[in-house]
Amino acid sequence: MTRLSTIAEFNDPRLVAVYDTVNPYEPGTQPDFYRSVAREVGASTVMELGCGTGQVACAFAADGFRVIGVEPSAAMLAVARARCTEVEWVHGDARALGTPDADLAYMSGHVAQFFVTDEEWEDALSALRRALRPGGWLSFEARDPRAREWERWARSVRTSVVDPVAGPIEWWTEVHDVRGGVVSYAIHYRFLARDETLVSEAALRFRTEEELRASLGEAGFAVECMYGNWDRAPIGNGAPEFIVLAHAQ
Questions:
Q1: Mean pLDDT of 36-48
Q2: For burial by CB atoms within 10 Å, which of 22, 196, 240, 242 has the most?
Q3: pLDDT category, 4, cuts 50, 70, 90?
């Protein structure tokens, strides 16, 4: 059964309320990149799987695109709906994508890595293929396992932010296990103003370039290009990402 993660970070209203503060997009990264892709491929209808709080989807809508945002977390979708009304918001997982003949489907925020098992990933790709028009485009990012980013998620490394409502928050990541391309971890969020710590546990799948290319091919996609960072640098040589652009065959 296709699903996105059901981790507390995506469902606990206390964590969802501060999600955008803790996870900001830097200029030139996901929102800017995917909007530039949409313009390059001449898209008019775009669809986001795992739209979260709607940061990227609403940026698309502001540019005049028809946007469909699909999100399995009711708490996150409530924030997205409050952010803007121009997006067609859909509560559900990949099975809720339907067949809108979209020109471009995308997954931002490393959503692709939350499909941990091969079955979940294959089901999601099949649903995305059905949602696209013939020759439509798919784009997403996943961390390159060769960069071994999880080794930088040391518990001793803490980040501090200030949310306009919740106040100062300190957060850090604790890696539990690395096995078979799957990294299981917990994120600790300490709300200093109320002296409360919330813990969100999850797992991410780090697929190799070969695994991504093979799974996309089996789902009916041809990879057009793969970048190593948001500036479209080549993959490898320490680049942190696989940023994929593929078209439906």
A1: 98
A2: 242
A3: very low
